[in-house]
């Protein structure tokens, strides 16, 4: 059955349950399973956009290949080769490179990789807050709620498979020597691809230290980017287009719990294997971030809004528990004070640091704030580096790395 696409849409997401396509509007709160959600761009620029990623002039500093896992590089390179082949076929025989699964776009598309990094900022901040700042614990039997990721056995298929040759050679030698069974070897071969998901250089925050001011800024931006709906430029445009109105203070941006959970799920950040579940921590944050009624009244009085069309009016009076102001979230999550001058532009932000609330858990914890991180890399064990440490065939007792 032919799927009808709206002529005005440049990108259409389709959910594919049991092989049947189903269009998914951007306003729906349903989840977007990465493996079964297909993206259909309105223009065929796949090959050109993939090729640009290998140009050092267009590669952003935070998106350099050395900051990603080998799996991301090889999946992008193989996808480029496939798309270039399809578009280089003779006239009349060219094959489309679309639609493409959301799971693949999260790997090969630099914009989706940027969104995923933002999602990781949020995830790290949430788990740190739950460990040191949350006032309540999540019961062990939680997780039975809307937004929990479902088990999906669908695997993202690729034309090429990349593995470390040392791992493959080891299995081949064991098969020749008869020291491993065929079933065990098959299981190990199937798991070889997952080793490339690990980044060669491991980086993680120093335990029991507060995030840097820059990471606090990135976390606040990520909450707004992933959890809030697009807003119109003016209030009248918002009314006509059915979009969220603009705000005069970024603290008033409304962040949706359902939207945040859905986006994190679509980016592949939610997992059923972690305890507590990340979506449970989000539910807990929304509950603890809501201020008491007296402070709420104080905030409303301070804003002194009388114009019915003013964009500063929000749904503070609403009983909807899905949306909450960004200012309340960053106060609860990072201890950043409410109603302070806030800009999301780094050049405007300059070297200034946010002002933290003196009564927040961040100040009371007495934890040290640092820009440092723990870096893990063993050159002699790293499969990308250990070739340099092999004995030099010309000078006894010297490795090639000794001459670097």
Write a structural description.
This protein is an alpha+beta fold and 404 residues long. 37% of the residues lie in helices and 8% in strands. The chain contains 14 helices and ten strands. The chain has helices spanning 46-52, 70-87, 102-108, 110-132, 165-177, 182-192, 213-227, 235-241, 257-266, 278-289, 293-303, 326-334, 346-349, 361-364, and strands spanning 11-15, 22-24, 37-41, 100-101, 202-205, 209-210, 254-256, 323-325, 368-369, 373-376. Strands 2-1-3-4 form a four-stranded antiparallel sheet. Strands 5-10 form a two-stranded antiparallel sheet. Strands 6-9 form a two-stranded parallel sheet. β1 (11-15) and β2 form a beta hairpin. α1 (46-52) packs antiparallel against α2 (70-87) and α5 (165-177) runs antiparallel to α6. The model is unreliable at 1-12, 15-30, 145-154 and 292-319 (pLDDT under 50).
Supply database-style keywords.
two-stranded antiparallel ribbon, disordered N terminus, alpha+beta
């Amino acid at each position: 059955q032919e799927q009808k696409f709206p002529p005005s849409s440049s990108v259409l997401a389709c959910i594919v349950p049991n092989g049947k396509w189903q269009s998914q509007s951007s306003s729906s709160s349903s989840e977007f399973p990465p493996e079964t959600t297909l993206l259909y761009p309105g223009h065929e620029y796949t090959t050109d956009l993939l090729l640009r990623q290998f140009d050092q002039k267009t590669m952003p500093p935070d998106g350099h290949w050395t900051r990603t896992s080998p799996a991301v590089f090889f999946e992008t390179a193989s996808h480029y080769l496939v798309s270039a082949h399809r578009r280089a076929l003779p006239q009349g025989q060219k094959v489309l490179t679309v639609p493409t699964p959301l799971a693949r776009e999260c790997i090969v598309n630099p914009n989706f990789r940027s969104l995923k990094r933002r999602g990781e900022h949020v995830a790290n901040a949430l788990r740190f807050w739950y460990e040191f700042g949350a006032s309540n614990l999540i019961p062990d039997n939680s997780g039975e709620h809307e937004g929990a990721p479902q088990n999906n056995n669908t695997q993202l298929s690729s034309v090429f498979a990349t593995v470390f040759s040392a791992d493959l050679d080891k299995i081949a030698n064991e098969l020749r020597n008869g020291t491993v069974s065929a079933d065990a070897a098959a299981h190990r071969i199937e798991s070889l691809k997952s080793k490339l998901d690990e980044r060669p250089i491991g980086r993680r925050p120093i335990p029991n230290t507060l995030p840097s001011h820059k990471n606090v800024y990135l976390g606040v931006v990520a909450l707004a980017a992933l959890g809030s709906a697009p807003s119109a430029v003016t209030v009248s445009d918002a009314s006509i287009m059915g979009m969220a109105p603009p705000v005069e203070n970024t603290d008033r941006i409304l962040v949706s719990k359902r939207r945040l959970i859905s986006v994190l799920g679509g980016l592949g950040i939610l997992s059923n294997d972690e305890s507590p579940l990340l979506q449970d921590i989000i539910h807990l944050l929304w509950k603890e971030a809501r201020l008491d009624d007296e402070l709420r009244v104080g905030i409303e009085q301070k804003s002194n809004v009388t114009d019915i069309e003013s964009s500063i009016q929000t749904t503070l009076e609403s009983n909807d528990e899905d949306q909450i102001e960004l200012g309340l979230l960053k106060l609860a999550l990072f201890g950043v004070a409410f109603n302070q001058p806030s800009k999301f532009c780094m050049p405007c932000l300059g070297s200034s640091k946010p002002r933290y609330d003196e009564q927040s858990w961040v100040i009371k914890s007495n934890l040290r704030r640092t820009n440092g991180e723990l870096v893990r890399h063993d050159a002699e064990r790293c499969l990308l580096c250990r070739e340099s440490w092999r004995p030099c065939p010309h000078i006894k007792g010297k490795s090639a790395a000794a001459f670097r």
